[in-house]
Every structure is written in structure tokens, then in C-alpha cells.
Automatic annotation (TrEMBL):
InterPro entries in UniProt: UPF0047_YjbQ-like (IPR001602), YjbQ-like_sf (IPR035917)
Entry-linked Pfam families: YjbQ
Protein name: Secondary thiamine-phosphate synthase enzyme YjbQ
SUPFAM superfamilies: YjbQ-like
Gene3D superfamilies to which the protein is assigned, alphabetical: YjbQ-like
PANTHER family, sorted: UNCHARACTERIZED PROTEIN YJBQ-RELATED (PTHR30615), UPF0047 PROTEIN C4A8.02C (PTHR30615:SF8)
Family: Belongs to the UPF0047 family.
Length: 136
């Protein structure tokens, strides 16, 4: 198994970051042909999603999360920016990991699917994502 950590700078705004180019580079470097890719974000306030990007779905996802998890003072977890407690609930809705089959050196995704980091935590501008490949 080959593992690599990548650093993603999300800045001080909520973001959905397409990890596709980083994943493709990682798989090329790993000499991956067929197997299983695992993507893991070791943070209590971020997740990994498979979603269409660039056509508004990423913005829609953030809007839906704002509706489900408002950034206000209702949360018991209270440190950081106002409403930060919601960020700690996010991984229960957007998993911190996923596994995807790799076929012919590429993630076996549908036409419009992208693997993305979902980060609503404006207090933590740098994220780490662990990519692991297990050859089949």
C-alpha cells in the first residue's frame, strides 16, 4: 500500500475543493493500475464527498449545509468563530473518508463525479488529506 499526504489551503471561506488533479497525480506517481483508492481527511470539521463541480452543485451543497447546519449560537460546542459547533457536526453528514475503485490508473467515477474536500470551518485555513492506494 502506498500513502501520501497532501495539503489543501481553503483559506477563511467555506469551500468545496475538487481533489481530482491531485488524486490523478498521486495515482500516476504510485504506478496505480487497478485497486482501491482511499481518501481520508483527518479533521473533526471537514469531509470528503463525490459531487459534480463547476455547474453550481458545489455551491448548492454549501447552501444546503448552511440550511441544515446554521452558523449560529445554538451549538453546545463553542470555541472559534460564531456557530463553529456546526463544523463539528459536518462529518456525520459528509463522511471524512471514501473508497473508490481504480481501473486503468484512474478513479472509476461517473462522467460528472468529482472527489472533493468539503470544508465549512473558516477557522482552519489548511487541511491535510491522506491518499492511500491498495493494489488489486
Amino acid at each position: 500500500m502506498r500513502t501520501e499526504l497532501i495539503e489543501i489551503r481553503t483559506g477563511g471561506t467555506e469551500q468545496v475543493v475538487d481533489l481530482g488533479p491531485r488524486i490523478d497525480g498521486y495515482l500516476r506517481g504510485a504506478g496505480a493500475r487497478e485497486g482501491l483508492l482511499n481518501v481520508w481527511v483527518p479533521h473533526a470539521t471537514a469531509g470528503i464527498a463525490v459531487i459534480e463541480t463547476g455547474a453550481g452543485s458545489d455551491t448548492d451543497l454549501l447552501a444546503a449545509l448552511r440550511t441544515l447546519l446554521p452558523a449560529d449560537d445554538r451549538w453546545e460546542h463553542r470555541h472559534g468563530s460564531s456557530g463553529h459547533g456546526r463544523d463539528h457536526v459536518l462529518p456525520a453528514l459528509v463522511s471524512p473518508s471514501l473508497s473508490v475503485p481504480v481501473l486503468d490508473g484512474r478513479p472509476a467515477l461517473g462522467t460528472w463525479q468529482s472527489i472533493c474536500l468539503v470544508d465549512t470551518n473558516i477557522d482552519n485555513p489548511v487541511r491535510t488529506v491522506r491518499l492511500s492506494f491498495l493494489a488489486g
